What does this fold into?
Amino acid sequence: MKRPLALLAAIALLAAGCADARSGTLGPAPTAAPPAETTAAPPTKVPPLTTGTPTPRPSPGTPTSTGRPGDPAPSGTITLQLWFVSAGRIVPTQRTRPATVATSRLALTELAAGPSPAEAAAGLTTLLPTGVEVVRIVEGLAVVSPPPGFSDGGAATVRLRRAQVVYTLTQFPTVRRVAFPAGESVSRRDYADLLPAIVVTAPTIGQRVTSPVTLAGTAQVFEATVSIRILDSAGREIATAFTTASCGTGCRGDYRTAVAYRLATTQPGTVEVYEVSARDGSRINVVRIPVVVTASR
It folds into this structure.
């Protein structure tokens, strides 16, 4: 009996490695991304919005969106993951801000404030208006109250706007799904089709990088192969590499690798992450991240 049981366990582990993870983990930010959903959750009816804000019940040490009067102010900083819009898709970047107990409020405020000048120059924008608030977070569900006009702009625009909110809020371990008024709750899986073929979570636009550069993100590419180039200010290659995502053709997987380069002087540069076309070998689904490349030793 021991040999058949061991065989069944091995098969189960292989199946789990290629489970449907269309949205990937896309984290961590600010502490860790929520666990990937492997099965579609049944629709959750949203309770009517109220004017009160019940106190959520987080696990010990978990960032929350509200605090209680008299709680000590947190110290240090917190790094948030923000999801902006680029070329009809949603893409991540980061902000490091003073720590607060109102993490979801801070994230939505930063999201509405829009991209930095460097991010805007790289094509990022936000569709989120100011005034979007989290009414409550209960049992993993964040109920959101948007301002008037949130649903203006056409179906595609509204869907991108909602995706920004969902992906930004579900970075917190206390939030797994988001509910908008007059609708059912949704999760990252509901907007996974709005992700580009390659998502880069590290490095971020404008970041100062050193050798070796850590690259991370998710990808849905041919044979799970993710290719990388690092370019200097003149566009010359100073490093090339490739890695493989945890899942390949037909599913989205995570990737993470470190790429070393050699450079005499610190200067602006570009990290390119792309897929090599199976048809003609060209670079496709290219993601360009402008960075500052520091001199190597």
About this structure: The first helix runs from residue 2 to 17. Helices lie at 2-17, 103-113, 117-121, 155-169. The CA atoms of residues 264 and 295 lie 5 Å apart.
